[in-house]
Each structure stands twice: as structure tokens, then as C-alpha cells.
Amino acid sequence: MNEKEKDILEKVIKLSKERAYIIDSLDSQNGEPIGGGIYSLDKIELRSEEQDANQKLWDYLLSLSDEELLMVGTMMLVGRDGDRGGNMERMEMYRTNERIFRGIMSERDGAINYLTGKKPLGEYLEEGMRRMSWSTI
User: Of 47, 62, 41, 50, which is closest to residue 108 (Cα–Cα)?
Assistant: First the structure.
């Protein structure tokens, strides 16, 4: 992993965790749990603080190149799903998840919506980075 990729992942992690914190804070104040760590922009009414945080994350992901977005999505899947129950080497695990996310990326806005729909996106990315042990991708 090069420094630019590391910086991109760290920025997405930061934005995602800020958004999750806002959601959790508002939920605890209002007693409105979303549940399951996942929310859909289509199914909930976003509060203004959530909208702002989500927009920052969306805008940042939108600013990435296709290859950078593919890397973020792949690392999210590596963190969430790992080797999919197999016993894969790191690079095989990365490439398998990369093929899966490449299919999701057939529509760029759909891929960004997929990523922003994951409340624990930052945690998934951190776990993906841990599983890849900062290896060169």
C-alpha cells in the first residue's frame, strides 16, 4: 500500500467515524436506534447533522478516481468479509474482494451509496487494513 492509498483510507475512516458518532449521539438523545449498523438513505429521514456528515463522506468518495474508489470498496469488503470463510493468502483475499467490488462499481453512484450505507464503514476499513498488514497492493 502506498502513502496516497493510506491517506485516502485514513480520510474515509475519519469521515465515517465522525458520521457514526453523530448518528449515535443523535440516536441516544432522541431514543431512535437505527439498528444493525446499517442504514439506508432511502428509508430514514436524515437529521441535518447526519445530512452534513453524510454529504462530506459522499463528496469525498465522489472525488476519488475509479481506481481509488475500487481500493476503498475492496478494503471495506476485506474488513467486513475477510477471506469469505476460506483460507486465503492476503493478496488472494484482496483480489477476490476486488472482483466482487468491481461488480458493485458498474454504477459509480451505486458503489458510493453502497459504501455510505455502511454505518461501520470506518471499522471495516480499519479491519481490512489490519488483515492486509499494510502490504503492497
Answer: 62
Question: Per residue in 56-80, pLDDT tens?
Answer: 999 999 999 999 999 999 999 999 9
Question: 62-70 contacts: CB < 8 A, separation 24 or more?
Answer: 62/112, 64/8, 66/105, 66/108, 68/5, 68/8, 69/105, 69/108, 69/111, 69/112, 70/98, 70/101, 70/102, 70/105
Calpha distance 92→98 (Å, rounded): 10
Q: What would the grid cell of residue 109 be? A: 453512484
**Per-residue burial over 11-21, b = 16 or more CB atoms within 10 Å of its CB, e = otherwise:** bbbebbbebbe
* pTM for the whole structure: 0.80
Residue 76's closest CA among 44, 119, 43?
119
Return the C-alpha cell found at 41. Answer: 438513505
Radius of gyration of the chain (CA): 15
